[in-house]
Design a protein that fits this description.
With about 350 residues, the protein is mainly beta. It contains 2 helices and 26 strands. The strands form 3 sheets. Strands 2, 3, 4, 5, 6, 7, 8, 9, 10, 11, 12, 13 and 14 form a 13-stranded antiparallel beta sheet that branches. Strands 1, 15, 16, 17, 18, 19, 22, 23, 24, 25 and 26 form an 11-stranded mixed beta sheet that branches. A hairpin with a 2-residue loop joins β25 and β26. Keywords: Hydrolase, Signal.
């Protein structure tokens, strides 16, 4: 079992997972108990098990009773071809307890070299959508996604382009908060793990032009109940030169504000640490012409326990917003970071996901 080095308030996330493991956890987010008001740090050696299994949990889950219960899987890629750099995103999510817009997948491409961007949003009828339980086997009009934790194959077809890639994970899976379970907002449990290093190769076709692409991807698998009180979130993934994988969550609910990171080390051990609230270092607001929503495009991120200070900026083009069926949208944007991590200079590429309204 991997070692966990919890630090400061973020230890509550791991303790909450322990409550889920040994309390009323019964395979459904709706059955989870609330964490104690003043949690104490626990470690993997004290008996907290992982509550997710990447091999089995790539498959679809039986839905919970709430209409906001969801299953989600997506990957984001940084690839190169013909002297150009591209960012790719493929995402499918289902809300099987909801009557409308329940089955959906999206595909987006940004040419980071030229700034060209395009996305595609497909709504699928329930009878035309398949995601098998217990294994990664997704089929829908325009989308095929199959495989396991060793190799995956993804094909996408849209009116303006296509993607056919192979993904081969390397290194350990990342369980968010070290166990795979944490409170997304206001005490509502969320299940999430990642395959943060996936060698990626294949063919991207855009407007009739074929590109042989090669690079890396980060896959995220998430499921559970989406809190109705969750008003805003930011998620970032950062791969460090020393092999550390850092996933940042910053969420605001009606009664909670959380900003923290899971750090997966190459040996499989974890740090779960506080991050200073991202709004404190957010700047350069951009307003979407499609939805009117505002998003920052620059951040100064501070992680005191890791002696880290990073500058993150959106790259290519700030207009990387994906619109949603309710008329709003969310930003799924390529980014780059520079700064210090554990006191050493670093730089790299990442993605930033934002939802909700940034008014300040």
């Amino acid at each position: 079992m991997p070692a966990i080095r919890t630090k400061r308030r973020a230890a509550a996330l791991v303790t909450a997972a322990a409550v889920l493991a040994f309390g009323t956890f019964a395979g459904s987010a709706a059955q989870a108990a609330a964490p104690p008001a003043t949690p104490t740090a626990r470690s993997a050696t004290s008996g907290i098990p992982a509550l997710v299994d990447p091999a089995a949990d790539l498959g679809r889950h039986a839905p919970g009773p709430k209409p906001t219960w969801f299953d989600s899987i997506y990957f984001i890629s940084s690839v190169k071809a013909n002297g150009q750099e591209f960012g790719l995103q493929v995402h499918t999510r289902i809300l099987p307890s909801r009557a409308e817009a329940a089955y959906r997948w999206t595909f987006s491409v940004i040419n980071k070299t030229t700034g060209w961007y395009k996305d595609y949003d497909a709504m699928v009828k329930p009878e035309d959508y398949r995601w098998s339980e217990g294994k990664l086997d997704i089929k829908a009009p325009g989308l095929s996604w199959t495989g396991d934790t060793v190799r995956q194959s993804v094909q996408v077809e849209t009116p303006w382009g296509s993607l056919d890639v192979q993904l081969a994970p390397t290194g350990p899976a990342m369980n968010y908060a070290s166990t795979g379970v944490f409170h997304l907002a206001d005490g509502v449990p969320n299940y999430e793990f990642a395959l943060p290093e996936m060698q990626t190769s294949g063919t991207l076709v855009v407007d009739g032009k074929k590109h042989k692409v090669r690079g890396t991807s980060w896959l995220d698998r998430q499921w559970g109940e989406m809190p109705t009180s969750l008003t805003r979130w930011t998620w970032m993934n950062l791969s460090m030169p020393n092999g550390d994988k850092v996933a940042i969550w910053d969420t605001i609910g009606a009664e909670s504000k959380d900003s923290w990171a899971t750090v997966l080390h190459p040996d499989g051990s974890y740090d779960v640490v506080d991050v200073e609230p991202l709004a404190q270092g957010a700047s350069r607001q951009w307003t979407s012409p499609a939805t009117g929503q505002r998003y920052p495009t620059r951040w100064r991120i501070r992680i005191p326990a890791l002696h880290s200070e990073l500058d993150v900026r959106v790259t290519g083009n700030p207009d990387q917003e994906i619109q949603t069926p309710d008329g709003s949208g969310y930003l799924e944007a390529t980014a780059a970071f520079t700064g210090k991590y554990n006191g050493k200079k670093v730089r790299g590429e990442n993605y930033v996901e934002m939802t909700g309204e940034w008014t300040s």
